[in-house]
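Per reviewer request, we include the raw input and output of the structure prediction for the construct analysed in the revised manuscript.
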Amino acid sequence: MASGMFISVVLFLSVWSTAKSSQVPDEVYRMECRDRYFMIAVDLSFTWEEPRFEAVDETGVFPLVGQYAAMCGYNVQVLPLQDRVELRASYFSCHTDNQDDEVFTFNFNMMVTHGEEVLTYNMNKTCSPALPWSPREVTCEANYMEVSVRSDVACPTGTRRDDWDAVVQTAYTSAVSDWQVMFQRVGQEVTPMNLTEAQDQGYTFDLTDGRLVFRTPYGQPYSFSTDVNGVPVEVVYATLFSRQSWVVLMVDLVAACSKYEGSHDGSYLRWQTPEVLHPLVAGLHETKISVGVDGKLVEQPVAEERGYLVEKFNDTVQISIPHNATGGYRKTVASGDLNEFYTFEIYVEQISVDEDDVDTRLRFHKTLTTPLLPRPIFSEDRTVFEEQMFTVYLGDVPLDVELIAVILKDTEYNVPPFTNKPGSIITQVIQPNDTRSYTMKVPFEDSDVLQQLNKEEKAVEYRLDINYTLTVLPEKKLFFHQASVTASTPLSPPAFIAECSDFGINFKLDRHPFDSLWVITIGSDPLTEELAEQHGYIMTNDGKTLLLQAPLFSHGYEYTNITLKGYFGTFEILVRDRETFEVQSSSVKTCPFTTKEFIMCSTDGWMTVIADLTYSVPRGSSLASASLVDPYCGPRDSDDSRVLFSFPLNSCGSLVKLNKEIVTYENEVLFSQTQPAVKSPGGLLDRVTMECTYPLAGLHRLFSVYKFESDTAGVGKIFHSIVHHQGLQSPTTEPTTVTQTMVPVTRRTKSTRRPGRHPSAKFIKVSNFLQKLSKRTRGLSQVKTVPAI
């Protein structure tokens, strides 16, 4: 039947291009011989525009575009997710050199654009099919259907008798020696046409050494759509015939392809095809399905490992592929939110065997694409508070999305390298699940971090607002992701740094923005410039640092461990809550000091005195014989020139001087010897007296046996006055004094007082005494001296 059969094919001719360029770089293209077609894949980065292809044979060059490419068995497809353009050519395509259906030689021109220049590259390849041809093979390409049958089995197996009789009758009555074709459609009259007419309408017929080939683009006038088991199918049914003498030669050529577009259920992409696409291939008793991607079938174990499922039900084959399975391609889309879709170039082979053991091999090329699926990225606060910086994690960023900038507050920082922001870093990590992540670290004290005071919680709240700017590749479409992280740190009351000096204690405080929550006090008095001036403090405050110098003997000191060798002075600064005035913390510093003379008037009614008696000792006397007015009140300690007394104010012969506002206790250092030993110039002696003065308003009790209470410490003075050795004071010599201003000390308990004889004093209520004193001295300001008894 094959002998003498020849079908002419009309070719579109173009001018042969003589301009050729150098060899195409190996890294930008590949050519492969597949089972039933030849493939060229070219990297899109190789050209500014999509490359164009021409088929070349001995008759000329033919641009492979539109309807002509489909008629001749070529499919040119741009695959942006794979970043390539792909040409697939059927082994029976036009312009392909076919030697005995075993060796096929392809020759193409590829035109690429570089700037304003168009370069042409010649690409050729010789292929031999890896598998033998089946008696009947059908290819469902993306843009055409193709059927080829072996010429020695081109009999109408399975054709319905009524259809066959109608075709035979028509063919017999109209057959001529030239080949003609009849296209059958249900309910329409069969009309023969010659092959030239069929070619003009987009149909291609070809006769090789052993096969008859028929090809048609989808949607041609004589194609028809039908529904098989709920699956849409496109069918073209052509009968080729010729009358040779009294014999009519007839060949049935039927191509049927599933037009099911696919579906997605949230997890799987599904595609369906009827097990039997047309009655011509009815009577099948065995069907085998194989699945692959990108034109390559995979073994069953590999398909199962990838999660591919092939199921049959109701005479329908259903193929299910997880949308994120290996072999697919994904793409991120920025359309308001971040979305993605998956695409599979599936390749399905269906081998069917009919009742006559004639097998039909059916191959499908199908692109399955999911709808847009949400592709959220997420940010996570991974801050470790002890690091005092924010750590923010941005995860699940697809590999085709990159972070290019971050906006913190109102400032944009480029990524990478993020080096224009000292102290802050951004690191990128490629994750095992083919995503990328970014980790950003920003210190709490960074200028882009918002700080807010929470007065109720006494805490500082830090907030970092981040606007991530990402770009989707390769189109560089921008997408923004916002995140906000917060941290809270309890505020600590201000703490001073203190150091000792020869003249007192110095305090330093580094100021912070929220120090206004607290009040700094000396005792209960807020530390102000007025208070510093009043008590002789030296204070400077530039807004960043507060410096306070508390001179020795100024208000606020406490003195302990007083000996002739020295003593300890303690100064305390309190920090109080501004609202409640409760003490929150204190800064206390204790320093050792030495002094030649010293006087302390405590709040519990004790006078402690270190007096210099260098010029006060009469001849024949020693410091050990010194006493106060009461001869029974001797010194607690002495050395070669000084004595230490510590005694209750209202004892040891002290005189009490009262007026409206103050009370003064006075005592004097005396010696039991009356014969002087002149030590001072001109035979004069140094008379040493000391006194403690308290404001009456601060006294709780004026006189009691051992009880004395005052709100404040007294003001102490030591007087040195020059007297004649007979005891008469020189009227021409001014007294010298050592003054101790109001100095608080720790109140002594009875157990800590030095035992000794202390005469008792009469108890007087302060309020009654002041009333009587007011009556006697109304309008006067005299001082009344009262001996302590």
